Amino acid sequence: MRSLRPLLVAILLVVSFFYFTTHDSALRRSLRLPSSPDWIARPSKVEITEAAEPPGLDAEERNNVEVYRKVLPSVVNITSTAVAFDFFYGPVPQQGQGSGFVFDREGHILTNNHVIAGARQVEVSTSDKKKYKARVIGADPIRDLAVIQISAEKVTPVVLGDSKSLMVGQKVYAIGNPFGLSGTMTRGIISSIRSVNGPEGSAIDEAIQTDAAINPGNSGGPLLNSRGEVIGINTLILTGGAEQSAGVGFAIPINAAKAVLNDLVTTGRVRRPVLGIQSLPIGPELAQELGLAADNGLLIQRVIPGGAADRAGLKGGTERAYLGNIPIMVGGDLIVAIGGEDINDTGDVARVMNNHRAGDTVKVTVYRGKRRMEFNVVLGEAESEGRRT
After folding, report:
1. What is the pLDDT of residue 387?
2. Residue 117 to residue 229: CA distance in whole angstroms
3. Strand partners of residue 375
4. How many CB atoms within 10 Å of residue 24?
5. What's the pLDDT score for residue 86?
6. How far is 176 from 68, CA to CA, in rounded Å?
7. Which of 86, 164, 337, 381 would bridge with 358, disulfide CB 3.0–4.6 Å?
8. Which pLDDT score is estimated for 134?
9. Pairing mode, strands 249-253 and 297-303
10. Distance (Å, whole) CA 52 – CA 36
11. Taking CA 247 as the corner, what is the angle to CA 245 and CA 249, rounded to the nearest 5 degrees?
12. What CATH architecture is 273-385?
């Protein structure tokens, strides 16, 4: 009997193997397990669910599309080529990219000065993939603005808006060529309006801060309102260490650019306007001490002989006094407004001047003693009047 036991075990194993190999499919079906690749279904036609028709755009989407289509033909990609030198003083071409926009039918393009500064060659690509050699017509490094020109048979200029009455929360668009990706539009709002330092370190008064994504390559491109009008020139971003948008970008207000466009095109430089005075900012305490008629303003210390203020009849100080150990002149006119805008310090004057150019006439409101007076002043040019206020 013991000799038959191994034989019976062997027979049992053979029977079990045969059973499981021949009944595998039935077992898998009973356990709902996938069998061989034969379970994969291959129907003759795939059934999918499709939308009945293309969805229509809502009002906001339509506005986005309209702004893009309206402005894109005016936006250009600018490639500037400068020459650096290697260790052995060999010339090494270096390229930079930025954006710009056509603002008249003569092919003049507004951009940032830092986009074309030091360039030996400037090339412009339009939205229809055409390329043109461009000439630098004029530059204003202080405001970081420049005008270049292309020779094209047909161009589409933008509509320049008004940056004077912008409001925080207002919707804005940026169109440009971030990282060389031409024809890119981003959207955001005006986050703030503040003074910031530009790429060259000079102040940009009333710069437009926005959370619309602005990246390298957007510089010089337009910042637009919801009607597709240019309200600013994208110029600066704050980054978190990498050169990419951190949701804080800045644009030069378009009114500051409009004030100098004529000079840049006709003379190649900006005839920076000045009143032709030396002045002292006045606050409430000093105004009370000096017995002035207003709590804030600029007290004229001296008018520059032959300058704008002198020609208009404004008066400087007539008596010497001391502010601590500092000698000052009193008895002059106290400027309280220029062009209808209140003046509290020299920064206010600079903001007003940024919206004007030499030769413009502005209304200057002063107190002469207790008497309020207004003068029409034809602004002078900084170079000819010693760069005073």
Report:
1. 47
2. 27
3. 364
4. 13
5. 52
6. 11
7. 381
8. 95
9. unpaired
10. 39
11. 75
12. Roll (2.30)
Please name which of 184, 230, 178 lies closest in space to residue 208, comparing C-alpha atoms: 230
Task: Please state, rounded to an integer, the average pLDDT across all residues of the chain.
Answer: 85
Is 3.40.50.300 the CATH classification of the domain at 171-266? Answer: no
- H helices within 317-364, ranges in order? 346-353
State pLDDT tens for residues 330-388: 999 999 999 999 998 888 888 888 778 888 999 999 999 999 999 999 999 886 544 45
Q: What residues does each domain of the chain span?
A: 69-149, 171-266, 273-385
Q: Would you state the pLDDT for residue 99?
A: 95
Contacts of residue 89, defined as CB under 8 A and 6 or more positions apart, other chains included, come to: none
- Distance CA(309)–CA(377), nearest Å, equals 6
pLDDT in tens, 140-157: 998 899 999 999 989 999
pLDDT at 4: 66
The answer to whether the 69-149 and 273-385 domains have the same CATH topology is no
pLDDT of 231 reads 97
Q: What is the length of the chain?
A: 389
Show the tokens assigned to 371: 């008497």
Of 80, 219, 245, 279, the catalytic one is: 219
**80 is known as an active-site residue:** no
Its pTM stands at 0.72
**E strand intervals along 141-276:** 145-149, 171-176, 184-197, 203-210, 222-224, 230-237, 249-253, 273-274
- Asked if 101 and 74 count as a contact pair (C-beta separation under 8 A), the reply is yes
23 tagged catalytic: no
Q: The domain 69-149 is classified under which CATH number: 2.40.10.10, 2.70.40.10, 3.40.50.720, 2.60.40.10? A: 2.40.10.10
Residue tagged active-site, from 74, 80, 99, 114: 114
State whether residue 89 is helix, strand or coil: coil
The answer, yes or no, to whether residue 183 has pLDDT greater than 70, is: yes
Q: Going by DSSP bridges, is the β-strand pair 297-303/334-338 parallel, antiparallel, or unpaired?
A: antiparallel
Using the predicted structure, report yes or no on whether residue 176 has a pLDDT greater than 90.
yes
Catalytic residue from among 99, 108, 140, 144: 144
For 199-216, write each residue's pLDDT tens digit.
766 778 889 999 998 888
Name the strand (E) or helix (H) holding 135: strand 131-140
**Residue 219 catalytic?**
yes
